[in-house]
Amino acid sequence: MKTGEFLDCPWCNFTDRDHYFLLQHVETIHPEGGRPSPFAIREEVTHQSEPPSEEMEEMEGARDCSSEYIECQCREFCLLTEFESHLEMHYAEGMGFDEPSRTSADVAAPASNIYPGKTASPPMEIPSPSPLHVVTSGPSRPIPIKPAVERSHLSTSRRRGNAVRDFIGVLRHSTSPPPPRKSSQATRNRVPRRLGRAELGPHAHEEKMPDWLRKELEIGAKVKVINQITPDGRLLRIENIANEVRGIVPVIMQLCEQDPTVSRAYLCHSDVTHVVKLAKEGGFCGYRNIQMMISYIRDARSDGYEHFQGRLPSIIQIQDMIERAWDRGFSSLGRIETGGIRGTRKYIGTPEAQALLQNLGIGCSADAFNEVKELPTHDCLLEAVEQYFLASCPSKSSQKVCRTSLPPIYFQHPGHSMTIVGFERRNNGSCDLLVLDPMFKPSPGVSRFIGVQFRTATPEKLLKAYRRGSSYLRRYSTFEILK
After folding, report:
1. Hey, which residues does 136 pair with through a beta bridge?
2. Judging by beta carbons within 10 Å of its beta carbon (0-12, 13-18, 19+), is residue 417 exposed, middle or buried?
3. Mean pLDDT along residues 69-93
4. Strand 401-403 and strand 366-369: pairing?
């Protein structure tokens, strides 16, 4: 079989170039013997003797119209049908331990040579190699992740059994995550109503988050201070925040350049920090994406940067900023729909991000993509994102990768949001969004390339965590973007 050729699942339309990821899909979605997947824990339905309340009808209706959901060890909620993609991202987080034998890096050139005027980011600490990589969301509940090299030598039956034993202990049933709310432009004429769990998540009706979680969010991630001497002899004090990673966009740019399957790629401004969730924090992805957008505004000194001096605002501070935007009439229906978000774990979406920016005088526009007869919804989304980047690239440019000065895009689909930092078109005509996902941290294989020019023999593997193509997007019928 030719290297790089797509491999097809024999039971559904899932495809992948990596036989290992295809194996994970088969083990999860198509278990041996046709038995129900051990990863799904089904809810037992009990019949009520009395008519349900209006609130209960709404909650049950949300469950009935959705598929089965499970909660990963990382405390995020996933559709069963997309759980293999979620696991792939966790595997991608650990990618890189067996990379030295297949990858070489030319580390002589600093980041300032890639982007003149930029100071090279300090190297991240990479754990030493081990035969079993563990991704944890807390000290007591690890997810064991077996490297592909080790698993490839196991028999089919043992691989299937090991997958069950590896993961069945870390899953438990939960309620479903919310679909995205319509943007403020789309809901301007709607009669406001109080939203429930279907839109705001399992904590839709809580008055405040637990004290331990609020304390964790106020303290924030661990900060490490590094003193660095600049070429002109000055002492530079650099703060490294554990859940904030700078310099990822230039790495993605070089990977796209080196991937032979990419015909053309576009990247946003390089000053976007990848912000990832803290352990055990739950569903604050909307806030983390707002932080990524603010990182661009602050570091690129874009319109409104004067509002964001120093560190990125915390989740608690962002809640206050959204509430103040509502006070001033920006997307104020959000307060009626949510009942207020200050100090809670209620999910937020595109309307809240839009309100925050508009209140600070930062121009932005929201677009919603729903089912249309002419094109699948995900194709409409991909076309709109490509046009966004094309507008800032020379039409006659011969460059394979076009680096722009554009802002990133806030991207929402049912149950999750991400930050779009680029777009790529492949040789076979397919397209991918290039995203920073707050749910997953950069892998060691990617982290060691931050701030340097490099060459790698496996760019496609390292790009996998940042690509969201048709096979992922076609699962959803609605999308929202804020740009």
Report:
1. 142
2. buried
3. 64
4. unpaired
What tokens appear for 116 in the block?
């003149």
DSSP 404: -
Decide if 66 contacts 82 (C-beta within 8 A): no
Supply the pLDDT for residue 283.
82
pLDDT tens sequence across 210-259:
999 999 999 889 998 888 787 888 888 888 899 999 999 999 999 999 99
In the structure encoding, which two tokens stand for residue 20, read together?
A: 């290992």
For the record, the structure tokens of 78 come out as 């996933």
Strand 401-403 and strand 262-267: the pairing is parallel
pTM of the model as a whole: 0.68
Q: Where do we find the tokens 């081990």?
A: 130
For the chain, how long is the longest CA-to-CA vector? 79
Q: Please say whether the beta carbons of 250 and 114 come within 8 A.
A: yes
Give the C-alpha separation, 350 to 480, whole Å: 7
* Sheet (strand 69-71) strand order: 77-79, 69-71, 172-173
Nearest-angstrom CA–CA distance, 163 and 147: 12
* Ramachandran bin of 166, using left for φ above 0, alpha for ψ from -120 to 50, beta for the remaining angles: alpha
Q: What is residue 436's three-state secondary structure?
A: strand
Determine if residue 35 is left, alpha or beta; phi over 0 gives left, psi from -120 to 50 gives alpha, anything else beta: beta
- Return the residue matching tokens 């609020």: 214
- Which H or E run contains 445? helix 444-447
Strands 77-79 and 69-71: antiparallel
The answer to whether the beta carbons of residues 441 and 280 sit under 8 Å apart is: no
Kindly report, residue by residue over 282-300, the tens digit of the pLDDT. 889 999 999 999 999 999 9
Tell me the C-alpha distance between 23 and 13, whole Å.
14
Measured CA to CA, the distance from residue 450 to residue 460 in angstroms comes to 17
467: amino acid identity, one letter: R
Q: Give the whole-angstrom CA distance, residue 21 versus residue 144.
A: 16
Domain residue spans in the chain?
Answer: 7-42+62-482
Tokens of 216: 């964790």
Distance CA 378, CA 472 (A): 9
Query: What CATH code would you report for 7-42+62-482?
Result: 3.90.70.130
CA 7, 9, 12: angle at the middle one, nearest 5? 140
Q: Which two tokens stand for residue 208?
A: 């405040």
Roughly how many angstroms between the first and final C-alpha of the chain, as a whole number?
42
Place of tokens 């990596």: 18
- Residues 14 and 371: their CA atoms lie apart, in Å, by 22
